[in-house]
Amino acid sequence: MKAMQVNTAGQGPGLTLGELPKPEAGAGEILVHVRAAGVTPTELLWYPTTHTKSGTARRRAVPGHEFSGVITAIGNDVHDFAVSDEVYGMNDWFADGATAEFCITLPQNVARKPATLNHDAAASVPIGALTSWQGLIDRAKLQPGERVLVHGGAGAVGLYAVQMAHIRGAHVITTVSAQDIDFVKRLGADQAIDYKGSRFEREVRDVDVVFDAVGGETLDRSWRILKPGGRMLTIAAGSEGPADQRVKDAFFIVEPNQKQLVEIARQLDAGYLRAFVKTIVPLNEASAAYSGAFRDNGGYGKVVIAIPA
């Protein structure tokens, strides 16, 4: 099969197109013919891309851990899926990803694809939607009527956080660029702050939950606007975590979750949630998509790699 693999031989990590043996589904595994894979550019710099779970060196990993496709084979002890089922989901970060014609996954990592979405749109959903769910619902226990501030509300994760907080009945505030204000208000934001034009802490007080997808100074300035007992969540604090216990407690990494994917698909099909694809690129241009060299159309959501059927 054709697959993109991480190449660290240059000045920075890049991708090269290669030929790999087509994987086979073992016991408890599912083989997916990938139709589309979502791009998370920073993945090439993450620890699991260059190391195994045991800490040994990992070479030529296949990136792209969110995907949509069609099941072509199932191993023994797989009971909830069948060949030809259309599924979407995400793999563990240490597993080989889906920027390839086929990938191995586990039943608990996937769900049936939302019926109203094509594969390109479905592949853009899992990481952003699961991150928002696990942050706002699982960790923060966001309640109706609470005030939540989402930093980066127009980003690939933030746009789901805004939507989910709105669906949850929260009062949603978000920081975005000026040109994105109308967009996030259509998603359900009650207040949108141009982060370049004003400092959010001058406009916001007594927030119950902060969902941070920006990190750095933005995260540092956010503590002062939390009300007593308020909850901080961040997905952008990898470097700050060791220095500040508060940040270590607030930081989390998304995990695959079938039950949540099922509910997310239901909400997408019902029209409560909306998916956004920024750009679709072919497999042989995946390296440009990860490096940022590919010119997108200026839209919202994920860049998606399309894999020919």
What's the gist of this structure?
The chain is an alpha/beta fold and 309 residues long.
Account of the protein in words:
- The chain is α/β, with parallel strands linked by helices.
- The model has no long low-confidence stretch (mean pLDDT 93).
- The chain folds into 2 domains: 2-125 and 275-306, Medium-chain alcohol dehydrogenases, catalytic domain (Quinone Oxidoreductase, Chain A, domain 1, Alpha-Beta Complex), CATH 3.90.180; 127-250, NAD(P)-binding Rossmann-like Domain (Rossmann fold), CATH 3.40.50.720.
- 23% of the residues lie in helices and 27% in strands.
- Helix 3 crosses helix 4 (158-167).
- The chain contains 9 helices and 14 strands.
The named CATH superfamily of the largest domain: Medium-chain alcohol dehydrogenases, catalytic domain
What string gives the helices and strands in order? EEEHEEEEHHEHEHEEHEHHEHE
Largest sheet: number of strands, sense, barrel closure? 7 strands, mixed
Strand percentage lies at: 25-35%
Question: What is the residue-mean pLDDT, rounded to a whole number?
Answer: 93
What is the class of the largest domain in the CATH system? Alpha Beta
- Based on secondary structure, the structural category is alpha/beta
Question: Architecture of the largest domain in CATH?
Answer: Alpha-Beta Complex
The strand count comes to: 14
- How many domain regions? 2
The termini sit apart by 12 Å
Do you know the CATH topology of the largest domain? Quinone Oxidoreductase, Chain A, domain 1
Question: Helical content, roughly?
Answer: 10-25%
Number of helices: 9
Rg (CA only): 19 Å
Shape: globular
Report the uncertain regions: none
